[in-house]
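4.2 Preliminary Data

To establish feasibility before requesting continued support, the project team ran the inverse folding procedure on a target of 152 residues. The structure was first converted into the token representation described in Section 3, and no sequence information of any kind was made available to the design step. The complete token record follows.
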């Protein structure tokens, strides 16, 4: 889908704060409320805007110990991959999971309270999954950049 400058600005504004009213957005964009509403509906209907969410402060909910865990499967069999991906969806500590190329098969982003909580997660959840050959964990020291915004 091609985006004009107004669509690009609108998407940026919505990514910054999706609770802005169409009236507020119309003022920022120099358009009528109806025009802004129609543009948003078009972007939603075309799947450009897939959903609206609330982003939580990880510190305030005590989930700011962030771990990147690299996972290697025993084999790259289709059944192993599908089973792992199905099971990982049930682990609420895992906020992101990427199937990647390279030395490892997956990279998981995990948010827990502290190192003890991560150890418990590893022992009682992750390492109980079938077909895992090895894991390698890296712990976040500081967050340099964290954005959900995509600039067009």
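Position-by-position output of the design step:
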């Amino acid at each position: 889908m091609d985006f004009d400058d107004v669509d690009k600005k609108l998407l940026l504004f919505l990514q910054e704060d999706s609770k802005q009213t169409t009236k507020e957005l119309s003022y920022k964009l120099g358009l009528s409320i109806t025009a802004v509403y129609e543009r948003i509906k078009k972007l939603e209907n075309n799947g450009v805007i897939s959903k609206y969410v609330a982003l939580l402060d990880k510190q305030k909910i005590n989930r700011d110990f962030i771990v990147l865990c690299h996972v290697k499967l025993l084999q790259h069999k289709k059944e192993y991959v599908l089973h792992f991906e199905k099971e990982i969806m049930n682990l609420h500590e895992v906020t992101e999971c990427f199937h990647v190329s390279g030395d490892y098969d997956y990279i998981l982003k995990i948010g827990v309270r502290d190192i003890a909580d991560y150890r418990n997660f590893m022992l009682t959840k992750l390492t109980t999954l079938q077909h895992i050959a090895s894991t390698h964990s890296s712990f976040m020291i500081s967050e340099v950049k964290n954005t959900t915004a995509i600039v067009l």
